[in-house]
Every structure is written in structure tokens, then in C-alpha cells.
Fold this sequence. Notes:
single chain; Alpha-Beta Plaits; five-stranded antiparallel sheet; 40 helices; globular
Amino acid sequence: MSAAHQSFATALAGFVPAGRIYTDPISTLAFGTDASFYRLVPQVVVKVDCETEVGHVLRLAREHRVAVTFRAAGTSLSGQAVSDSVLVVLGDGFARGEVLDGGARIRLKPGLIGSRANALLAPFGRKIGPDPASIATAKIGGIAANNSSGMCCGTRQNSYHTLASLRVMLADGAVLDTGDAKSVAAFRQSHARLLQTLAELSANIRADAALEEKIRHKYRLKNTTGYGINALIDFSDPIDMLAHLMIGSEGTLGFIGEITYHTVPDHPHKASALVLFDELDRCCRAVTALKQSAPVESVELIDARSLRAIQGKKGLPDFIYGEIGDSTACLLIETRAENAARLAEQIVASDAVLAEFAPSAHSGFSTDAGVCETYWAVRKGLFPAVGAVRPVGTTVVIEDVAFPIDYLADGVRRLTALFDAYGYAEALIFGHALEGNLHFCFTPSFDTQAEIERYDGFMQAVADLVAGEYGGSLKAEHGTGRNVAPFVRQEWGDAAYAVMCAIKAAFDPDNLLNPDVIISGNARVHLENLKAMPAADAIVDHCIECGFCEPACPSNGLTLTPRQRIVLWRRMQQLSRTDPASSELAAYRARYRYVGVDSCAATGMCATRCPVGIDTGRLMKKLGAPGSPSPLARFAQRHMAAATAGARFGLFLNRQLGDSSAKVARTLKKTFPLLPLPPSGTPGPAGPLPDPKPMRAADMPQVVYLVSCVNRTLAEGRDGSDSVAASTLRLFARAGIAAVYPDGQASLCCGQPFDSAGATSAADAALAAIEAALLKASKHGAIPVYLDNSPCSLRLIDAQKAGRLDARLELHDPASYLAEHVLPRLTLHKKLPQLAVHVPCSASKMGVGGKLLALARACADEIVAPDIACCGFAGSKGFTLPELNANGLRGLRASLPDTCDAGVSMSRTCQIGLTTHSGRDYHSIEALLDFCTTPEPPRT
């Protein structure tokens, strides 16, 4: 670390808690990674939680002459969110939003994820305008700072055009809130010179008719190359110019601390179609016609190579799987309307336009949400899919350009020719055709100077083609970043570039805000600090470090995210081959066991967000697995009845100790680190299993009821007065369903605890034992099996899909069986006014979260479902690593209204953590249904 950075970090510790200032090699490498193909390792990382802390960072940066880069989610693709100086990461304090004017506007902090802003607006039938493909991960600060758009956003619903007001902190620490008249008046006085500079630049442009027309032309296209100097001619007030210049400025002009958007309608009725053309020209002419006269929301172009790449995906029309010629292209079209009748009219109108261009195949417009979701998921996954099949050691580059729409076909052909000329045969082209916006991605290797020069030649050729020949945009929506900074002058010309340089100088005269991004004097900055992607492990080698996994990870904010675990493991593996004695490798090894392996929940939720399904938890379990079979695990598996009895006795002691139990447990854990720490929401022991009701009639439906070991151990609710088994049997009895237990119930376990601990042999033995018991009880599959704990259901259902459990068994998770076979046979006698619902990660992975929510809606007037992908209890880790659960649920209490005093889930251990960290009692779905279907006693 340089002396200046050391002094900066020391001084900053007086204003920001030391625990949020990072200078160690693990943290700086982990936080320094974004989705681009550049790698810069910051010398200092600081996590800020409020505007005041940002002010201290900027003041000290000026004093110590160190550069600062702001970072939101790190999904940026062009290198604008990495730094070798000071990286400022947004903390939880910036993850807030407030709906205004009945949904017409929304005020957002920069750390809120875009999809969560839309979730706030959903009850009002509104959404924010920008809709990048990364919206489930990207944060508002990055969306605004990059002027991100997306598939349906077009050029009129991006951040620039839907901006209502913003709050910005400039490099000198001054704050302007354009929605506050007092703030604006004070800023006019304090920063009159800056505003005068903007007014003069505006006047100079207006005096140059050719320059003004060029700017207007460029912004008829999607364009994020350089600064948004259209602000200087779109507005007359320098305050408005300043606000709109901040959009797309990529952190080089100031820090956006808050933004208020005008929202746009989110029409509930939608239909999508895939339309195939044998000729690219006809396909592109159809796009032009659709833009001019069809009521379509989005049209995505998919070229021949991309079509071949998606032929391995399921759920697409048959014609996608046929032979694809080199001139073939496909359109993915979506139309939306406020009602079904209007949607039907729009479909007819769109089909009429398409028919004029004689498509070779047409799926027809589907209104089925599942079908539409499949189509769009495939399109969104094209970029990562390229990364998933790339040779190990190569990286993935995605660029996005915009051609005038009349030249769309020429653009596709000419870009394809460039790929062939430079030997990038794997390259794909796809994009937002209505705007002439084409994305292309390919997988260069940067391991030799020759490969770097090949890439440089390709980029120079692209610049000459797009900006030179066609007057298009080298960056349509991904931001200029480092990759296109050397080409800004070429695209815009000397006069416009001089305006941009003047803007940078006026806002940031010391060049401390994200230097070399947008404006750079280094003509080769796009070729420096290129990211190495060395082999690490086959489980994760295809990771492209996009970061889509991070919002689903409960250790995000505690230790590492899945992306960061992979980045560090890659570096460790690289060093172990090239410099095994290095101090850097020793530093990583000293801490990786805890921050990487032990604190990983290993629930696999990262895989559900990863476009190519990488389960980082698999690697962590592999790294943490015992080197030899665990005798303790095998003993526990063979003596499961005794193990659960011992656990019940421990729970009994915990209840007897009362308030002093936590203190005793912490004291014992200092001597015996493996001892669990029962959270405050831990119930008492479950009582003996109740006897099932006998069959009353020969034709009475039957079910084999497997009571999970966790529900045989833990009572229902904190007071321990009931059990999941008792609630379930009462439901079955009311529904007229006869339940039977498998033989040896007390000794059965699905094997999940052993599998999580890496004790494979014990897990396999448990699975074999449960298979034999269920086959016998179910009469070899003739009777369905009810599994009363969601993680156990997932374990057994997945094992059956993998061929490790007899296919004759008819297995049912709680939500599916209760929704389909039990609730229809019951009468609801009462409902709760409000109910919190947590869909456990196992339910999400089985795809039954919707059924759990439907059951909850049947039992409550209103449900609240906080956006928590994984609570972090992770089996036994909630007892042994309670900080993981606390971190995963750190936002739970604040997300629940005060009027909501009860919760429900379908994982017993998750319910313990939810109860502990919410202050509400979370019950099983069986207990909830039992309560709501119990007849009220007659009044006397």
C-alpha cells in the first residue's frame, strides 16, 4: 500500500468504523472484482452506509490525493467499477426506497437492487423505466450512473428521460438536491461558476449548428458513449443540465446519493412469440415495420450463431431445434396491454405486420407466463452461456453498439465478417432490434501479447465500422468504461470531445473521481489490467464473475459472496502453481477456511441465480469434506434414534436453563468449539409421535407420513406445546386421509445433515435405509409419501431424479401435497389479518414457492413476503455459525410491518432463525392450516 493510501485509511478510521475499512489482500481482491474483463485490486476498500461517510471519504481523498471509485453491485461490463486506488462500496444504509404519489414516482437510494424497486411498485401497477437484463442484481446507483436501459426500455424510458430529481455530492463535498428548492437556491450561490460553465458550454453548442445536429442524431439512437451532452441542449436551466449530466457519468462527476424516478406503467397482460426468418434482410425489415406500426414493447434479434447456441435449451418451439442456416435470424417479440381485449388486438396487429415479411416459422403469441419466461430466460442467458462453453483460461467480452435501424442487417453482416476476419468464430450477436442495438460477445484469450494485439485490432475495426461508417454508437447501454474510453474522441469528433473534457475538468479538476473512465489520456487503457481467468476447479471454471448470484447469498456482507469465493480460489490455485511460497498465497490460506468454506451456507441458491447453474456451495463442500470417512457421522447414522433422543434432552436442558442458557452455551463453546449455540427462537423438545388415526373406510385415501428427524426432535412453536406431526395428523384426519408411519421411523433420516458435512458414506447409508422403509410402507409405490420438511423433500426428490432412489416412490413435498390433496377437502374457519411468509431455499429449488404462498393466502387476509432468498440457517449452521443466519436475516425485522405478528414457512430450522431475528413466531405450514381449519368452539 502506498504511503498516501495508508495515511488516507488511518485518517478515515476516525469517521468510518474500522470494521468497514479493508486493506487486507482477501478483501481488496474480493471487493475489487466486477463483471468486466478488467482486474484492478484496490489498495483500500471502504463500505459506506450514509452520505456523511461519503463526504468524509471525498474530503480525505482530496487531502491525500488518492482517487476514488464508487461501486454498487459490480455488474458493470466495461471496467467502470474497478480501481487500484480507493473503492467505495455501498452498504445497507443505501438500500432503501419510498413510493410517492400513489406509485407515480419512487424515491430510491443507490444501494437498492432494481428488481426490489419494482417490487415496491408492483401493487400500484408501475415500474421503473430502466430494465437491464441484470435488474435482479444491479443496483439503482449503477443503473443511473450507467444510464442502463434494457430490452423494453428503449430510448424514452431510461434514467435520463424518467429522472424526476436527484441528490448528488460533488468532488468538493457539496451536496445538491434538485428536488429541494432551498438546496437548489444555495447551490446557485455556492457553485455559480460551475453553473456558468455549463451555460457557456450549452451556448457554444447551440452556436454550432453542425455540432448540435450531431448530438441530436446521436441520441435518437441508444448511446452511452461519453457524457450525456444532450443535457446541454435539452434543458435551459444549468441545474437541470447538471442533474442529467450525472446520468451516465459512471461516477466520474460525483456521487448519486438518491434519485427520484417518474415511473411507467407495468401492464399486467403480456404475450411473447418467437418468429424465424430464413433471410436476415427480411428479418430486419420486419423490425423496421414493427417499430413504425405495431404495438410491441420489445423486439430482440437473435442471429444464426446464437440460435445454434440455444438449441440445447428446453421449452422452445420445435423449429428452433432444426437446421439453422448462416442467414437465418429470429425475433423474440413481446407486446403488453392494460387488459386482455387490448392485448388480443395488439397480437392481431403484430401478426399482420409480420405476415408481410413471410417468416419461415412463428410460435404464435403465448400468454402463458411459464412459456414467456422460458423464452426470455434463454435470451437473457445468451451472454453467460457463451462464457459457460468457453475454453478454460479465456475470458468473455460483451460489447453493445447501435446502428441506425435502417442499417441493422448491414450491421449484423459486417460485424460477423469482422469476427471471421479476426478469428473469433465463437462470437454471437443479439440485441434490442427496435433500437438498432446489437450486443456481441466472444471469448478472447489475453495470455499473450499477440492475443492482446489481436483484440486491439478488432476493437479498432469495430470503431471504424460503427462510429466511422455508420455514425452509430460504440456503447449503446453498457457505459463507456475503460474499454471504449480511447474511442470517445473518434466517435464524437474533436468539438464534442472538447465539451466532454471541459465538463470533466469543471466537476473534477483534480481528476480524483474514477480516472481513466470515459475520459482518458491513455490510448491503450482498454488493453491494460486485463483479467486472468485461470483454471481453479471444474465446478466453477465457467464462472464469468457476473455477480448475479450475490443477492441470493446469506454470507454476502458477512464474509464472501459466491463470486468472491471463486475469484479468490482462482487466484489461490494460480499462485499454488506459479509462486507456492508467496506471502500472498499464505495470507489467503490463513483465512479462506472460514471466509470461504465454513461460512458458505452451501444451500445452492447461488445456482438458481447463476445463468449457467454454477453451485459454488458444491466446491465449498468439496474443500471442507473430511479426508476420510467420518466415524462419528457413520455412528450417528446407525444410531439416529439415540442421536435425536440426545438432541431432545439437550433441548430440554436449554429450556430448563431459561434466560441463562445462552450464557452457559457461549461459555462452553470457548472450550468446546463444536458445541451448538441455540438461538433464542429455539423451541423445546418434541414429544412422542402421536398415533395416526385408523382407516374408517376401505376406499379412504392413504398416505405414508415420513416425519423428518428435525420434526421428531423439535417442538412446534417456542412454547413447545405441540408438534408438526400432531398438526399434520389432525389435518389428514379432517381431510379424510389415513396416514401410516414407515417402520423404524425413529431411526430414519434423509441424509441431508451428513451430506452437508461432507460425510458421503453416512449420507448414502441413510438414503438407502429410508428407501427400503418407504418402499415397504408404500407397498412399492402404491401409496404416496408425505415429507414434512422442505429440505428433506428436496434431498429425496433430487435423489430420485438422479436415479439414487427408487422411481416407484411417489414423493410429495409439504406445499404441493397440502395444496393439491388436503386443502380442497377442508373448510377454513378463520383467517389471520396479516401473515409473514418465508419461502425456504429448498422450496424455491423445487419450484413450489408459489404453492406455499397460495396456502398462506388462503389463511390470511394479507401476506408479507420479504425478499430473502436464503435465511442462512443452512441446516445445523444456524446453531454452529449463528452469525451467518443473523447476516442473512439482518433486514427481516425492518421489512415486516408492526401489525404483522405471525409468520409461516416449511423448514423447521429456518423457522427458528426467522423467529429469532424477526421477533415474531414462525410456524410450520401444517400448524397454520391446522389452526385455520379447526372449528371454533360453540358459543355458550
